[in-house]
Each structure stands twice: as C-alpha cells, then as structure tokens.
What we know:
The protein has helices spanning about 25-35, 145-150, 170-194; strands at about 5, 15-20, 40, 45-50, 50-55, 55-60, 65, 70-75, 80-85, 85-95, 95-100, 100-110, 115-120, 125, 130-140.
Amino acid sequence: MFTKAKNASPENKAATLIAPEDSSSSAQSSTAHHARSSLSVIGSNTQVEGDINSDEDITVEGRVSGTITCKQHTVTLGTKGYIKGDVFAHTLHVSGEVTGNLVVLHRATIHKGAHVSGTIVAPCLVLEDGSVFHGSIDMNPDNEILKSAFNDAAGSSITPSRLSSASGASAQKTTKSQGTTTANHAAKQDETEA
C-alpha cells in the first residue's frame, strides 16, 4: 500500500512513506469498506432484557434474555456469553451457553465448550467435539418453521411454542385433528339431542 521514497536522504528514508499513485487501489479500498457489514457487540459486562432486532452482524459477550432476530447476518455468542431465548439468524456461531431455540437459514456451528439446550432448526449444522447439546435438531431445508421465519413477504411470525419440539408441525396437526374430532362429536351429540 505504501512505498518508501526513492529520493529521500538515507537517515529519513525509513520514516518517509509515499502513498502509491494508483487511484484504483483507493477506489477498491473504499468499495471494500462499504461492502463490509458493520458489527454490534454486547459486551461481557452488559445484560439485555428484551428482544433485539439487528440489520448487522451481532456478537454477544454478555447476557441476553429475549429473542435475537438477525435474519440477514451473523450472530456470534462468545465463550462467556449467555442467551436465554430464541435466535433467528442467517449464520450462527455459539461458543457460550444458550437456553432456547435456534432457527438458522444457512449454517449453525456449536463450538467446543458451548452448551445448548433447545431446538435447532438449520439446514447445515456443525457440532464440534467438546460441545454439549440437549434437545432436538431439524435439518430439513424445507421445514415449515424455517420457511415461515425467513419469509418476510408472508408476514408470519414464529412463536416459541411452535419451536418447542422438532415435531412441532405434527403436534399441531394432532391437536388440530383432535379439535376437529371433538367438534364433530359435539355436533353429532347436538343432533341426537334435537
């Protein structure tokens, strides 16, 4: 990026730097600066209670109680970080502790030393040796929860109850069928009484 001045005196040669004359390198660095996404950091001495919606990468070194929504960027949980709640992210890296559900569009990585309890919905999942996981995993890229969580056009939202288990969709169908059966039974009973 910088070159030493060719005509400088020997004693000042090391200290004198001249920027290159190539204007394309400054245009490239300016473009690269704008292409990089920004980063929000929740420091190790910070506690957040409530939901976080971010349109940039986010790193959690502290404690968060609530839902983190970062659907187009990366969420990183540091080794001392703790999340109690759900996380919706494009990419996720966990090195700390999570009690909640993780819904990831691209890839979730649970690093060595991490502790996760809950449901992970992600088409690509890496559980490193030395990580601890208790819960269920759904890696189906056509999962209804994954589609509705990242389909902003539909305007649907995911509630924690829908993520309570990997078989949430079948549990909803069962509940729905039982409700229909009960309603039909009640209708038949009304007909018999009339």
